[in-house]
Amino acid sequence: MVPIPLPVIPFTWRVTLNWQDDTTGQIAANVLHIRNTGGDNDDDALTSVLDAAVDSQQWDPMADAWEMKFFEMLALDGVSTTAVHVPANPLVWQGHTGGQYDPAVSCVISLRTGVRGRANRGRIYLPSPAESQRGYGRLTDGSETTAAAAWANFLNDLNTGVGGSTWELVVASYDRKHNGLGAHATPVSGLTVEPVLATQRRRQSRLRI
Q1: What residues contact 175, with CB distance under 8 A and at least 6 apart?
Q2: pLDDT at 204
């Protein structure tokens, strides 16, 4: 099967956060979409703003074994290639709580926009919370509240250009059904860090031979 190419969405970048646990070799990835709203529209500028805007408490529910090793950045302009960058301060891109974890368990961040419809909502499945932070399928230590406040600060810092240029987190709809003809990006207006946990089957299946 021929893969469907990524759509063209002006000034919008697909940013993959690549996580790894060096002890077990487990890996995980989160894909964000970020749109430039003024200033420099290149991967160096985007790296600078992410490093300036990130708050370590965004990862508060996660086990501290998880570290974000590098960004993969791709402009959705139909011609650019992927750029790879490492974070300036790796300690800010790391989970918070020691102890073991189950790879398949994830903390869910629900992204809201001002537009109705499935194509205008998104989710981020953070890598695993530590076992001490959860029970009966829920977060139990209030870390969802801490993380939600940190993510709100992150959104604000992107918008105000804390890293030298202004950006916004968006929900990108690729409209693969129509080969990208209706592809678009909608600004995130709010988010919720869900107390109820979810699963990522692919993360668990990597343990099986």
Answers
A1: 7, 119, 181, 182, 183, 184
A2: 79
Count how many domains the chain has.
Answer: 1
6 lies in some domain: no
Q: Is residue 2 part of a domain?
A: no
Q: How far apart are CA 95 and CA 74, in angstroms?
A: 25
Chain-wide mean pLDDT for the chain? Answer: 92
Closest-CA residue to 139 (of 200, 58, 203, 62): 62
> With b meaning 16 or more CB within 10 Å and e meaning fewer, what string describes 50-79?
bbebbbebbbbbbbebbbbebbbbbbbeee
Q: Is residue 3 part of a domain?
A: no
* CB-CB contact of 28 with 155 (8 Å): no
Q: C-alpha distances in angstroms, 20 versus 67, 161, 162, 168, 204?
A: 5, 29, 27, 26, 14
Phi/psi region, residue 4 (left: phi>0; alpha: psi -120 to 50; beta: rest), is beta
Q: What is the pLDDT of residues 74-84, one digit of tens each?
A: 999 999 999 99
Q: Is 138 helix (H, G, I), strand (E, B) or coil?
A: strand
Burial category of 159 from C-beta neighbours within 10 Å (exposed 0-12, middle 13-18, buried 19 and up) = middle
- For the cut 90, the answer to whether the pLDDT of residue 164 exceeds it is no
Instruction: State which residues form the domain around 164.
Output: 12-205
- Domain membership flag for residue 104: yes
Residue 201 to residue 209: CA distance in whole angstroms: 14
